[in-house]
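Bug #77: duplicate submission created two jobs. Keeping one. Sequence:
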Amino acid sequence: MKKTRLFWILTALTALVIGCEVQDDNEVPKEIEVQNFVWKGLNLYYLWQKDVPDLADNRFANQSDLNSFLSQYSDPKVLFQNLLNKPISQYPTPGEAIDRFSVIFSDYTQLEGILSGTTLNNGLEIGLYYKNNSQTEVFGVVKYVLPNSDAAAKNVRRGDIFYAIDGTSLNATNYRTLLASNSYTLNLANYDDGNITPNGQSVLLNKSVISENPVHINSVIESGAHRIGYLMYNGFYPNYESALNQAFAQLKSAGITELVLDLRYNSGGSIATATRLASMITGQFSGQLFAKEQWNAKVESYYNSHGWSNQFYDLFTNKLGNGEAIQSLRLTKIWILTSKSTASASELVINGLKPYMQVKQIGDWTVGKNVGSITLYDAPNFSKTGINTHHRYAMQPLVLKIVNKDGFGDYINGLEPEIQYKENLGQMGILGQADEPLLQKAIQNITGAGRLISTPSGNYKAVKDQRMEVQLQSEMYKDNFKLP
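Kept job's structure:
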């Protein structure tokens, strides 16, 4: 079935009248095949399709009219950006556009790698900040290091600070280019009473293809009568669900009484994996609604008419996608650590659990991404079956908004922590140790010991985390959606 026939069925269901000619992909010149794929995929699935005039179902009388429009765009990526919900730039910032997260790739293998946690990487996960009293000068801080990476082999550590790459000082216009190199030298600095002072040290780092196990730390901390489980989880990657489940089995076997879930550097991933993580934390709500997805009217009408409305409901479960039994803790309260890097599927876990249990959020406000995407290929039904072999483009457009059991999902400004704390760049601490400042806040809240006071992190304004700079690294996506 041509993807255009599917489009016609959906548009017919919504009583929209389009000439049959616009459906015939055989009339599409080869030089605009990708552009045709972009328009028809967005016209069908895009969450804000009705709000974009050039995506209207009656915008073109026939395929010839559509071809004329598409021929104005020699670059499919420019067309894609112009069809999003009022973009102003390729990388919109809050306030510039409703849609800040839809992306397109010229090579779908790169897209698939990022979604699975496999990237070209030297092992650094960093934050970038403006120097005090500057809107141009930038410095970087290492937030964590991936095991078995070049950075790990060269003893780069959390809290290390760098002010330049290859001898070129970082600024707001050059840091993307400098960090994009496959090999570069970090020029290091000290944090001197809030000042970033070069120390003459440097380290050469090389990138290689790395698959990140998102279960970064899993441990038990004993404090008096409390056996506190600590899990640092950095990405919702379906390929590592068994590793996540095993981590919960270990916590369960250790007899933990409380759990601190560290999502401060977790910028998202699979909705299905987020649902399974929530099921590991609980276990007493299997089969009940964790989250509901809201798609555009055409998609919802088609799926509802075919009895497939269950596709829009994400339910607590007792099994992984591979059938493995979930190791659930059956908790009624959880402590979750967050930061300005906490996004999408991480926010979904927080918001989805709140109607069912007490969630104590500690740290900074989250990003505020309550929308999700699917992968669209240039194929008859936009799946990978029968894919067009003339190119390797694929899209990851936003197609859904997600809400919890109570219908709440309006957190585009982020989720506010109950206990606010920003990391002190001069005192990052060692992740997983009880005296690491953010974890210490959670332990104090659990045990009732110590004063819960905020520690200033200096007058540094964040530019962006490196992870958030990578397309799709702040994505929440549906990976088990039934395409007709």
